[in-house]
Model the fold of this input.
Amino acid sequence: MALFRNSLTYVWLFLVGTTLVSWWLGATTAVADIDASALSLNFTVTVGIILIAVVKTRFVIWHFMEVRHGPSWLRWTCDSWLAFLAVMVIALYRYSM
Amino acid sequence: MLSGDGAAIERVPDFEMADQQTQSRARFPGQPAMWFFVIGDLWIFTCYFACYAFDRGQHSAGFLQGQLTLSQGIGVFNTILLLTSSLLVAFCVQAAREGATALARRLLLLGGGCGIVFLLVKASEWYLKISTGLPEGSDSFFVYYFMLTGLHFLHVCLGLVILALVFRELKKAGPPHVAFVESGAIYWHLVDLLWIIIFALLYLLR
Amino acid sequence: MTGATLASIAGGESRKGRLLSNPKLDQWICFWSIPVFYILFGVIFVLLGRIMPPPTPTMSTENIIAFMTSPNLSLAVVLLALSLGMYALNSGLMLTQMKRMVGVSPVLRYAYIAVLGVGGLPGCLFPGYMFALGAFRPEYDPEILAMLYDLGFLCFVGSLGCFIIQYVVFTIAVFLDKRGIFPKWLGYFSIWTLVTELVATPVFITQTGPYAWDGLLSFYQGTLIWVAWQTSVTICLYQAIKNQPLEELGLPLKENEL
Done:
């Protein structure tokens, strides 16, 4: 069982990399008494972060949970849930702003 | 006698059952009851995420105020910790399939160990947060923060119990019940997955 | 089999004879009390009392008085006082079926019944009595009635600790059971009800939003999942009773005994 040439290791590297990318995207400086209204709410950044999270989740489901090898109903269920989650979170956030 | 990547040729004939399970693995990962649980749990959390997204849109300034007091660095550290533990548990499943139960147990201990570190970091994060006090107007955010991370914390605890049961299964003589090991791993990946989403929603949204 | 001889002596098997000779009759009586109980529950809490879905925690005092002095609520509470004991039949039935589990210590089923006995009081009866005071003694100071309103709902939604333990012991019993009296997915389902009970904890501190006692998460999601769980358990209970072999009933099967 190869550890370092394993496809799962590549998936892990991708996941860690995208975590760092989304951190950079949503970076804020935690200052004690910062004025929140001065920090602009950035809807594009929000959408980006949600989409990155959903992509990461899909990789975990597909490769770690091995749904990739699973029956088509399972793959369809997981994918449609992911799509629903992404659309719902973005839509609700946008609608309530 | 062959598994998917041909590595089984070197395996001891005792593990024929593991090979059969390797082939049947290609059709369905884990046990159906566990998938029932995982999918239902995802939908339950989806309701929480929906409420959070809506409330966040309504009170963006207050939520942002609360979010700013969180340490994104600790959040990233926790995320990477869980991703690593997921990788280790996935390796454990591969090892279990090939019958290498000693290696599988070691990987499981490492993966579970990462989970324990996650819990410790989370607990100290909470303690720091509560002792330094919460900023004005961010109560709504912090109810979500403690509820979401709290529920996740309990899921991690349950995950550790399940991993312990998998460890016990791997300690038994003879070929392990691979579907059971897979199911335990699937639950652990669920825990990882939930954290990915919770981390993005709580720590990073703008 | 038991009453067959007697019935055939009486000249042909009557329907009543068959029914009375059913060795599981006691269990079936208890079982059919469950839907009766829940229909009453629905009438009491939803239709008459309007306790479910709950009104808002931030309701004004006049509206609170109006809610509590409603004659429908007084009728609902009387019905509740008379019928709540019926739930014991459900618990007894669960105990009987849990007793059949193999590899499960008796402590789990005793804990199951004990915790329901403890939880039913703050969860159902006390709120009923608190609301009833407003209905039957309207002369109390509005401030006092407003306090009882708060207390009633906090008890009703917030009596979560006992029910959490109910789900914990049930889940453990289902998973340890080597015989599969209840299916494993029911054990996983019970974990969800456990989680939704935990989600009700913020009701003590938040009065608005999804974590208040009338909130989307603390009340609506929790109640929906609980209704689905109770329905599933009832169906599984039916299967368990039906599939119970007669030898396990422990009844002395005498020839001429009804």
Q: What stands out?
A: The first helix of chain C runs from residue 4 to 9.
